[in-house]
Amino acid sequence: MTKPKTPKSKEPAKPRKAHVADAGKDATPEEKRSSMQKLLIAPETRAVLAMQTTSLGAELLDVPGLVDELKVQIEAVRNGDLSHAEGMLLCQAIVLEDLFVTLTSRAMGQTQLSTMEPLLRMALRAQNQSRQTLETLAAVKNPPIIYAKQANISAGHQQINNAPAHAGKIENKPNELLEATNHERLDTRAASQASCNDSSMEAVGTLDRR
Description:
Layout (H helix, E strand, L loop, with lengths): L28 H13 L1 H12 L8 H16 L4 H26 L4 H29 L69
Helix pairs in contact: 2-3, 4-5
């Protein structure tokens, strides 16, 4: 005679509130202690600890399951999959926009400026945060291209000599005025030679200064 099957409970499993560090059956006390410390400083564990104190549904959080899910999300980001981050940013922008609308409608229902002004200030702040979140989402989906020019300014102004290494030393010689004969310096004190050509100018007579 077969036993009747026990009907399965429709209630969900109770969430686990602790996460056990598994270092293995044959682990030494030192290895178990090290495994616990690694678990405590892991980013996914610290995120779950924060969510337990801030989340509205903290009583529904299953600590080991949430830690494992966060590990999956972290690995996806490392592999270039940003779909979860994109969805998170979009949802945040929508919530901030809803907050802007709610605060604005409350401010418009006030009759005194002293109570209207703080609500409008918070509404505009929520609107600005929503805009910045959407800009971040756009930057995640389409990263900007940055063009950078390399400049060597580590030691101030520098003079670069592009001359060949085998080039000889260049001497700066003073300019010399030459006469008709090559390599002769012009002597301004020497008397000039008479020219054999007739001059078209006549001598000027003596002026009578009286």
